[in-house]
Design brief:
Layout (H helix, E strand, L loop, with lengths): L5 H6 L6 E5 L3 H9 L4 E4 L3 H4 L11 H14 L4 E5 L9 H13 L5 E3 L7 H9 L4 E6 L5 H4 L9 H17 L3 E5 L3 H10 L4 E4 L7 E4 L1 H5 L16 H17 L11
Parallel strand pairs: 1-2, 1-8, 2-3, 3-4, 4-5, 5-6, 6-7, 7-8
Helix pairs in contact: 2-4, 5-6, 6-8, 8-9
Length: about 260
């Protein structure tokens, strides 16, 4: 299998669906890559899934670089996209370029993802002109939940939907190779998908997008609490792991482990 690149992802528009997942560590990245996933996102969602924060906002550049490098070491075929964390690109275009460059040069990522619509076009343009592929992200943008008032569906009102559509078009002009659409109505996602020549990757955006992405902890049933409505739980690993831990506890306390076959 040949390596997935930003150019190949872009060329997949209208050819086949793109299958995308998050990953945050080496061993999981190996399995995701072996499954044939096209795009692996080292999401800032690791602030919640891996570090225990309540939102994505606290994760730092150094933490994101470390997790991204681990994923890169486990992936040979998929495109690895690093999520630029909150306040790593908002201050200035030069700040964005420097930090995006670190993801490519130090962590080995293939591309970066930044949140925001038309107002982010200038930043996207500079990154792309300097050889850094960019994945856009519009709709519900978790780094803006303070302003949005929480995790709410975006684009339900006509004027809001029109703004998100224009955001997608402006990001395409700026040079993104694909756009994540998060938590927007399915019909709006269909309209956006039909209006741009680059792939749309949905998460809570219905079936009409060119691809789909999920947080791997939601897919595997690993994250505590309720699975988001837009996510499907394909496994219940939390219970399997808990049962294994309990079995280990029982056997050690009962003197059953280690047995002779586990000893030298």
């Amino acid at each position: 299998m040949s390596k997935w690149t930003a150019a190949k992802i872009k060329a997949a528009k209208g050819q086949h669906k793109l299958v995308c997942l998050t990953a945050y560590d080496y061993s999981t990245a190996c399995l995701v890559d072996e499954a044939g996933i096209h795009l692996v996102l080292v999401g800032d969602s690791l602030a919640m899934t891996m570090l225990g924060h309540a939102t994505t906002l606290p994760v730092s550049m150094e933490e994101m670089l470390s997790f991204t490098a681990a994923v890169v070491r486990g992936v040979h075929n998929a495109l690895v996209v690093a999520d630029m964390p909150f306040m790593s690109y908002q201050v200035s275009v030069s700040q964005a370029l420097e930090n995006a460059g670190r993801f490519i040069k130090e962590a080995g990522a293939d591309a970066v993802k930044i949140e925001g619509g038309a107002f982010r076009a200038a930043t996207v343009r500079v990154l792309v002109e300097n050889g850094i592929p960019v994945l856009g992200h519009i709709g519900l943008t978790p780094q803006s939940i303070r302003e949005m008032g929480g995790y709410k569906i975006q684009g339900k009102q006509p004027e809001q939907g029109l703004r998100i559509l224009r955001d997608a078009q402006e990001l395409e002009k700026a040079g993104v190779f694909a756009i994540v659409l998060e938590c927007v109505p399915a019909e709006l996602a269909r309209e956006i998908t039909q209006s741009v020549a680059i792939p749309t990757i949905g998460i809570g955006a219905g079936k009409h997008c060119d691809g789909q992405i999920l947080v791997i902890h939601d897919l595997l049933g690993l994250y505590p609490g309720r699975t988001p409505r837009f996510a499907k739980r394909y496994a219940d690993l939390a219970n399997i792991m808990k049962q294994a831990f309990e079995s280990y506890h029982r056997e050690v306390t009962a003197g059953l482990f280690p047995a002779d076959e586990h000893s030298f």
